Amino acid sequence: MVNKEPKGVENIFPYLAGTLGLDPSSTVIIQFKGGYSNLTYLITSTDGEFVLRRPPLGLKISKAHDMVREFHVLKALEKAGYSKVPKPVLCCEDEHVIGAPFFIMEKVNGLILRNKIPEGMTLSPEFFNKLSRNTIDGLLELHNLELEDSGLGALGKPKGYVERQVVGWSERYFNAKTDELIEMETVSDWLRKHIPSNENVGFIHNDYKYDNLVLEGKDNPEIKAVLDWEMATVGDPLMDLGTSLAYWAEEGDPDILKMFNLTYPKGNFTRSEVIKYYGSKSPLKLDNMLFYYAFGLFKVGVIAQQIYKRYSLGFAQDPRFAGLIHVVRACGKMALKSIQTEKI
């Protein structure tokens, strides 16, 4: 019996047979649920488990969906001696195979925490405290990777990075705009006027949060692998920290901003503790973190806006996307409040 491929990877069985020698009769492909961007599939066969990643169906909205580039990022990380990545297996640039470029990597087994503790599982405050510490240690490790010999340095243009990001994400917001959200527009103007004069350089992930970490298990929050490298580049590490802070929801935050990261249960660091811990191990000056945090919230809002625009145009049918406009609004309000109160 030949398995039927899920939507987005139709007719891939002959390719898998020809490149990896996977027998179609004993290979099963299912799509991972829960993501908001690129599509990810689990390939299970008698020869092992693999993961396939491809761009979303329909409208292409940014370079974040460049699967060939993400594959090269994984290869460069391997060369840099960074071990917390799934092993890249192959990359296919031929769009005739499934309609878009894609790549395949080995699957890393472990615990991935989404926005809710898995049913029947108990995670202690001590677990989350260690996870917070491990998460920031992992971010610091990335920011200190060697750039030149590994080839990682060729993946970005650090000079002028912060300004390009502010201008670029502002343009993306207005290009994807559907509703009048004065807070988002006000934050965009503020960011343009408060770009820091100093620039830092390091390798950055740009989407570093709990649900992109594969952990050892419920009794051990050690990080086995970091996932989703589509936005990784060379730029200012504090922009990376700002994005992680934007996802770092606390107990008192609006519920809608808790849907992306399980950082609000007891035991987790607060955002101020994240900044203090990062600063204790980094030579970078953190006196302008308000800017980087506000930018992170704005960027998260723009990402949600872009996905919502795709949904409103009919390019995506996931019912979760219908509510993302409320995420955009909440990000704008949170960022503006932080700017006005000068509190993170």
Q: How does this structure look, described?
A:
- This protein is of the alpha+beta class.
- The chain has 2 domains: 94 residues, Phosphorylase Kinase, domain 1, CATH 3.30.200.20; 217 residues, Aminoglycoside 3'-phosphotransferase, Chain: A, domain 2, CATH 3.90.1200.
- It has 9 helices and 9 strands.
- The strands form 3 sheets. A 5-stranded antiparallel beta sheet has the order 1-2-3-5-4, covered by helices on one side. It has a two-stranded antiparallel ribbon with strand order 6-9.
- The chain is globular.
- The N and C termini lie far apart (56 Å).
Q: pLDDT below 50 for ≥5 consecutive residues: which ranges? A: none
Q: Specify Rg, calculated over alpha carbons.
A: 20 Å
User: How many runs of DSSP E, i.e. beta strands?
Assistant: 9
Average predicted confidence as pLDDT: 92
In the CATH hierarchy, what is the class of the largest domain? Alpha Beta
Q: Please identify the structural class as seen in this structure.
A: alpha+beta
* Biggest beta sheet summary: 5 strands, antiparallel
Terminal Cα separation, in Å? 56 Å
Level-2 CATH architecture of the largest domain: Alpha-Beta Complex
Main sheet strand line-up: 1-2-3-5-4
Give the count of helical stretches: 9
Kindly identify the CATH topology of the largest domain. Answer: Aminoglycoside 3'-phosphotransferase, Chain: A, domain 2
Protein name: Phosphotransferase family protein
Organism: Shivajiella indica
InterPro entries: ACAD10-like (IPR052898), ACAD10_11_N (IPR041726), Aminoglycoside_PTrfase (IPR002575), Kinase-like_dom_sf (IPR011009), Ser/Thr_kinase_AS (IPR008271)
